[in-house]
Each structure stands twice: as C-alpha cells, then as structure tokens.
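Appendix B, record 7
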Amino acid sequence: MFALVDCNNFYVSCERVFRPDLNGRPVVVLSNNDGCIISRSEEAKQLGIKMGEPAFKIAAFLDRKRVTVFSSNYVLYGDLSHRVMQTLGQFTPELEVYSIDEAFLNLTGLPVDWAEYARKMRETVRRHVGIPVSIGVAPTKVLAKVANHRAKKIPAQKGVCVLDHPRKIEEALKNFDVGEVWGIGRQYTKLLHSIRIYTAWDFLQLDDDWVRNNMTVVGLRIKKELAGIACLKMELIPPAKKVICTSRSFGEDQTELVPINEAVATYAARCAEKLRQQRSCAGMLMVFLHTNSFKQHEPQYARNLVCKLPVPTNSTIELIHYASAALRAIYRKGYRYKKAGVIVMEIGPEDRIQGSLFDRVDRAKHAAVMRKLDAINAKYGRDTIKVAAQGLGGKWKLRQERLSPCYTTRWGDIIKVRV
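Structure tokens (predicted):
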C-alpha cells in the first residue's frame, strides 16, 4: 500500500503557521517579483480568485475584499517542507519526496489500520509543524493520487481517503475525470475525449494494445496502476539533474552591465551550489538575456551564448568567470533588460570527469575552498561568504514588497514570546 501526503494550499498554510489570525480569512501568495497568484486559501478560492491571475489586474478587488497578500518566501517554505518530510519519515522506512509539498510513503507490510494510521500521520504533522495535509492510501501510486484528490475535495472524507477494496476503487474511478489522472496530460486527454473516454474507469476498460500503440508504454503503466498493479517504484534517492537552470526577472528593468553581471554571477553561483549538492560537474554553460516582450513600444532584444568549459567543474569561481564572459559577449547598450539566467548542461559525476593536459586550474584548491564556503554558508546562512562579482545586491533583485519574516531560519526573525 502507498500513501500520498499532500500539504493543503502549502504556501498559504506556511504563512498561517505564524499568523493564526489569518485562519478563516482570504489569503494569497504571489510569484516572483510579486507577479501572479500561485497559492490561494479556500476563502480566496470562494471569492473567485484564479490561480495564475496577475496581481496588478485585481489589486483593487483584493483590497476591497480585504485579502491578505504575501510575496513568496521560498526560504520559509523550504524549511517547513523539510520539517514536514522529517515528520512523515517517522511513519515509514521508505519515503519519496515528490515535490516541496508532496511525498509518497510505502506502507507495504506495516500491520496497521490504513485509515487510522493516515489520521495519525495527519494529526502529527499538524501538531508538530502546523501544516494541514490530505492523505490518500491505495495499492499503487496512481491510485494513491486519486485517493488524495478525493481526500482533499470531498469534505466528508475529512482529509483522509483509503481505497483498499475493488468496490471503493471502482466508485472512485467512475467519478474521476480522466484528465486529472496522474501522467495523462492535455494532449492525451484530447485523444481520449475524441473516442468518448471521459473518466478514469472508461480509460481502464480500453484494450492494452490500443493504449500501448497510442499512449506508449507510459500510458500502459498508468492503466495497470489504475487496475491495482504496481508499476511505479519508490524513488528513495532523487536522480541527479541533467540540466540545471537558475533565472529570475529583475525587480526593475536594467540597462547597465554591472548590475546585470552581479545577477548573472549570483545565478551561476546557485548553479554551482546545486551541482555540488548532487556531487556533479557541468561541462557546458549557457547565459541568456532578454528584454520585456510585453512592452512592445520599447526596443526588443534577446540573445544567448553557449560556452563549452575546458574541464567540467562545479566551482563557483570558475562558473562565474565563464558566465560573466558570456554575458559581456551578448550584452548590448540601449535596451532595458527584464530577465537573465544561467543554464549548466552536460552534467556528470564529479569523480568521473575528463581532465585536460592544458588545464592550469588548481582543482584541489578550488574543491577545498568550495567545501569551506558551503560549510560556512550552511551554518550562518546563504551568501554569508560569496564571490565579489556577485555584488551586494541592488535593484536587480526580486521585488518582494509583501515578504514575511524568515521565522525559522533567521535569528532576527524568530518570534518573541512575552509572558
């Protein structure tokens, strides 16, 4: 049996942990640069606020309805996600962190009552972390997704749904839109609708050969999972990324090279951190830069440049060096730039890189410096130590006018209780 635990309205729930006065009130969280709505409380949904709605378009409505608005605080959300996953790890020997707010638990072989065990998990997470979750339990991961959807959408389920009997599974699938099935995207949904397949149960009645021929072996696995045959294994260790991208829109449009270079250097440093975390090195780097295509009255420019690195590396110093060189090659005066980014590719294990006879970099020294840099930043906070090219921050940084404190990761933001 598998359980899927999904945090309810996660970003909003994180904000409410430290602002209980917002319980029962409409709350939304905005994307980078306070652009679009990416998380809504149930009260905000009832007001008709749509996911992805640009905040500036409904600013007057939000104010009139007294909706509390937050800038996205990913440091806070990441820390609370880690605490949720640690808590869930107490309930199973096998835990797969699927996303920042979702996790699969393998409950196979545990001598427990599934519904009671799920309710205990839900209560423990709420008590230890303060985040409300919904839990679906079923024989396969795809069915667990279906069960979780019912746990979240049907109030009578009270946050827990267990599909442990063929009759329960049949009823659930007959009332589940085929487009909502995990792994069936928009194009396959159109295909299935064209042959009058509208529910997950309808999909289950299709011939295996038709599914394999029209939806590949992936579609066939989904069908078998819906039938209760487990085909998707637990991924206990996340696979190393093959491509890593770090990019942001600037808080204000930029025209000068220096602040843009600070941003690109910072993005390259983030890519280097991620490479070291997964013990990988990158052999290729791309830098891109573009203006705001929505401002048609302004001159438009977009360019990217790919650099083949002499030797694969995860050194912040090296990646910043090559990223800055690429930026200088594509930067042009006379434009107002909206966004830049760094992408590293040709990623492989750091212990299996191809050296060069002409390499003049002291790689052992770089590795030692990076270890110290990572250790200090892990202890005292990101960018406590950084490369000078990253600058001290400025107008290129994200616009976060409604940012909440980092209650759990910054000493100065810890809540003070006076008795």
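Remarks on this record: DSSP finds 13 helices and twelve strands in the chain. The mean pLDDT is 93.
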